[in-house]
Specification:
It is a single chain. The protein is built from six helices and 13 strands. The protein is α/β, with parallel strands linked by helices. The protein has a single domain, classed as Nitrilase/N-carbamoyl-D-aminoacid amidohydrolase (4-Layer Sandwich), CATH 3.60.110. The strands form two sheets. Strands 6, 7, 8, 9, 10, 11 and 12 form a seven-stranded mixed beta sheet that branches. Helix 1 runs parallel beside helix 3. The longest helix has 17 residues.
Amino acid sequence: MTKITKVAAAQLSPVFLNKEKTVEKACQAILEAGKKGAGLIVFPEAFISGYPDWVWLIPNSKGAELNELYLQLVANAVSIPDETTSSLCKAAKAAKINVVIGLNERNTETSNASLFNSLLFIDDKGAIIGKHRKLIPTGGERLIWSQGDGSTLSGYHTSVGKIAGLVCWENFMPLARNAIYELGTQILVSPTWDKSPNWLQTMQHIAREGGLFVISTCMALKMEAIPDTHEFKKRYPEGREWINTGNSAIIAPNGKIIAGPLEAEEGILYADIDLDEIVKAKRMFDVVGHYSRPDVFHFSVKKKG
């Protein structure tokens, strides 16, 4: 039986380092997507409450400046669960839509002072069904985020199909991708900070490799979105308008872009997806099926926790 559903990629900017207002904006987008008939909406990496782009600008010798920014980032981070997640869950339930949203997550299991780059998964009944912590922060990000572990490499059965997520450049990790494929993932959500043409080519490759739909959602962020009170803003080139232009896209299992890319503007992309296209794509190449060669290769994930 054909299973067609509408999905959405929310290329939006947060209210920078303001958790309450960012959550309000997220909830409005959730309700809007629900009214338009979407069964799933995916937000960018670190949407709550902003991507710490200063890690690429401020040298580690500027400890006082970095300490103050980190303090604000932690203050506007999310504990799972907390009031923030309750608000998101209520919106998801009201809109009858599944939600995946990137956020800065506190390590509430221990010190409550370290952060993970995480994805939160909420179903269309308003229940938290899981989270994923980015396995390896990239480059300067390692000054901000801790490493996730294998316990959050999971897939989730939802009303739109089985979904799973990888954050930004962990999508480049072949073994992480293979773990996602072996889960039987039908929709891979890939929130990112990467706006480059190379990134979109990677997303198209992954869609073909895994024989699945990919929703790549990147933050669109203007210079004016960063309050002038932040000194690091002066480190950008003079006259720069956009910090990140987005280029979000939704991609079919054959590698074809079916929505987007959306560049240099905020907006929500929509696409109708047919899960039967996954089966068609895997007739010739099923990376974890008839093409897997278990007699030659052995694969496993170490689940910690």
